[in-house]
Design goal:
By secondary structure, this protein is of the alpha+beta class. It has five helices and ten strands; from the N terminus they run H-E-H-E-E-E-H-E-E-E-H-E-E-H-E.
């Protein structure tokens, strides 16, 4: 029993930093903001659901605030500072709760199951192609990752020969298996 408990605690200790590392806000993430401190009648308009759009969230009365790459705590601190700088509140306790960290990649082209797939922390190009059922018989060797409007091409044969060449896939990527 002691071995099982030790194993579980070790597994949790290893998994927690990896889970936390992926929990910064990115494009499309949805979060809930609650403001406390001042009387409720003054904070109602700040208790809102926000979506990260172009790396920022739009806040009532203080405008757009950078959110991409920040944790919930960092974003809450940034909003608190802006509310105080704008002299809207002298005391502002902001609580940010992520409601959706659903991050996806789209895999298309000459694959058996083209679709949108949930992104995971260690997702690679070949992992995404395999999640989509693998290449069809019409697939060429070339696979493209389109990220932020820029395309990069990769060879499946080269990756098969040297798995170290298999690039990580990021949320929002479009993966295209080229075909005839």
């Amino acid at each position: 029993m002691k071995r099982i408990l030790t194993f579980l605690l070790t597994a949790i200790a290893i998994a927690l930093p990896a889970a936390r590392a992926g929990n910064t806000f990115r494009e499309g993430d949805v979060l809930e903001m609650r403001l406390s401190g001042p009387p409720e009648e003054f904070t109602k308009e700040f208790n809102v659901v926000l979506t990260v759009d172009e790396g920022k969230v739009n806040q009532p009365l203080i405008g757009r605030i950078s959110a991409a790459g920040m944790t919930s705590t960092q974003l809450a601190s940034s909003i608190e500072q802006r509310l105080k700088q704008a002299k809207l509140f002298t005391v502002a306790n902001v609580n940010i709760t992520p409601t959706s960290f659903l991050r996806t990649v789209i895999v298309g082209g000459a694959v058996r199951l083209p679709a949108k797939y949930n992104w995971v922390l260690d997702f690679t190009l070949m992992g995404a192609i395999n999640a989509a059922g693998g290449p069809t018989e019409f697939a060429k060797d070339t696979v493209r990752i389109i990220r932020n409007g820029k395309a990069a091409s990769y060879s499946r044969k080269a990756i098969k020969k040297d798995p170290a060449l298999d690039p990580k896939v990021e949320p929002g990527d479009f993966i295209e298996q080229e075909g005839d």
